[in-house]
Amino acid sequence: MGPYIRSLLSKLVFGFSLGCAFLPETSSAESAAIVMSDVCEDPAAVFDHRWASDTAGATTVFYMADNGTVYRISEGNGALGNFEDLYVFAHGAPGTINNMGYEAFAQHLENAHPAIPNSVSFGVCYSAIGPNSLLKRVNVQYGGLVNRLSGGVVACALTGNGDRRLANAEYRIRVGHSDDERYKRIVDNIHAKWAENYPGTETSYADYCRASLNPFDAGRLRDFMETVFDEFSVANPEPNSTDYLELVALNIDGEPLTVCGQDPAGRGRVDCP
User: Fold this and answer.
1) Torsion angles phi and psi, residue 223, rounded to 5
2) Cα four-point dihedral sign 54, 33, 155, 197
């Protein structure tokens, strides 16, 4: 099993990056999403961002490089610091988010967003596992004053419960599948397609994407994300389906995310794990 299939399975088969029901904090234009270099590893971050766009109005997306530099992918000139509600999408493991530790990420986030955000929602596996979770570290970085943070104690997944529409999906942990064999077959097909040539080129999806990161090319990465969504959201017939949205539909049940912060539910402070 290669690194791509492991990362995709960790987000999809065992649940995407967040834990408790990942409900949008707001539907205003004050929301923005952040993706990281693992946007080149599989389609997960592309569909995560599209989900945040559909459910929370997070149409603006930024890229945080491995050195912490933040670039705007979306057209326009507004900085990350202009947005009050943030959605962060990356692969995670206990103690790490993508290619950096929690402390480094928290510092980089504050550098790019000096003002205290209203909310930070993580589509990052294991981001809520204590005793020093990613949620806690980010909140500490902002003096414990973030209103709401959310993330999963284990791996998490966009869960459609039979519905492939992202606008109706929720992020949940400990997700099951309505058809395990079909699920794995689609994951295998996505893996295979990701290694094939990106449309109009003779290089793989991963290599084409990486070429847009160093040096950073917002237009190329923006077009890449649009193409990935289009290419991997086609309702292909079995047994050759590469429909990521069908994976979302096949994800069922699960448990909600961990939520914490200064006043995440209007009932006072909830300590982060």
Assistant:
1) -65, -40
2) positive
d(CA 244, CA 9): 12
Say if residues 29 and 53 touch (Cβ distance below 8 Å). Answer: no
Q: Tokens for 166?
A: 């992202």
**CB-side neighbour CA atoms (13 Å) of 201:** 16
pLDDT tens readout for residues 1-47: 333 333 444 444 333 332 233 444 443 458 999 999 999 999 999 99
Residue 91's SS3 state is coil
First to last CA, the chain: 32
Q: How far is CA 194 from the centre of its chain?
A: 18
**Residue 200 in tokens:** 């109009």
Let me know if 11 is exposed, middle or buried by CB neighbors in 10 A (0-12, 13-18, 19+).
Answer: buried
Q: What is the token pair recorded at 64?
A: 């945080």
Write out residues in the chain with pLDDT < 50, as ranges: 1-28
148: CB partners within 8 A, 6+ apart:
25, 118, 119, 120, 121, 259, 260, 261, 262, 263, 264
Q: What is the pTM of this model?
A: 0.89
Handedness of CA 83, 126, 216, 52 (dihedral sign): negative
H-type alpha helices, 60-204: 102-112, 134-141, 180-195
Reduce the secondary structure of 99-133 to three states and give it as a string. CEEHHHHHHHHHHHCCCCCCEEEEECCCCCCCCCC
Determine whether 129 is exposed, middle or buried from the number of CB atoms within 10 Å of its CB (0-12, 13-18, 19+): buried
Would you call 3 helix, strand, or coil by DSSP? helix
